[in-house]
User: Which sequence fits this backbone?
């Protein structure tokens, strides 16, 4: 699998994916407003929470490496991020292409409605340095927990754009403490 960093450096045969006991990996399409908002919430996970659980969080997009840095600035994401321009990892893991009509429920990570989110995505495409879709718009992603080694502990393949797994449910599986993704202060019940 040929993963690439923002500096167009190859990641040695997925070695970065095998170094920690558990790696939740989010596969994202950079231009999709839903994925952008999901990654904005991934960005809110404190590095200290991940370090305490000895977990590495990696986002893998499916576009050119040119889109990594602007996407990270846009979302505030500072954890590891790579791209797989040929979508090899998507294919090997059986990630769907196209949208399956299925009720996915309301994601706690999607803040925009269809109209405003689509307009934001279109605006980013038109005003971006490279006018492209930043990957295959039909490619669905997912979440994977693996490691150490090649052991897969959990996999969720998105069936459509709204079928993202709630982040806290994945964090719970790897022993990372709960994160408040709302902008409201937490209430502590005594």
Assistant:
């Amino acid at each position: 699998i040929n993963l690439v960093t923002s500096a167009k450096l190859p990641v040695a045969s997925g070695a970065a994916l095998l170094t920690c006991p558990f790696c939740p990996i989010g596969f994202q399409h950079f231009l999709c407003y839903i994925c952008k908002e999901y990654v904005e919430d991934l960005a809110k996970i404190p590095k200290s929470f991940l370090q305490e659980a000895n977990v590495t969080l990696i986002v893998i997009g499916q576009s050119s490496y040119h889109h990594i840095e602007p996407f990270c600035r846009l979302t505030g994401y500072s954890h590891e991020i790579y791209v797989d321009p040929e979508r090899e990892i998507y294919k090997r893991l059986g990630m769907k292409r196209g949208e399956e009509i299925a009720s996915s429920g309301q994601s706690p990570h999607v803040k925009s409605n269809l109209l405003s989110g689509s307009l934001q995505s279109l605006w980013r495409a038109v005003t971006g340095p490279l006018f492209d879709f930043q990957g295959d718009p039909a490619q669905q992603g997912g979440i994977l927990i693996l490691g150490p080694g090649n052991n897969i502990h959990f996999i969720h393949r998105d069936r459509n754009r709204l079928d993202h797994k709630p982040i806290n449910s994945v964090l719970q599986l790897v022993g990372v403490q709960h994160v408040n993704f709302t902008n409201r202060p937490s209430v502590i019940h005594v």
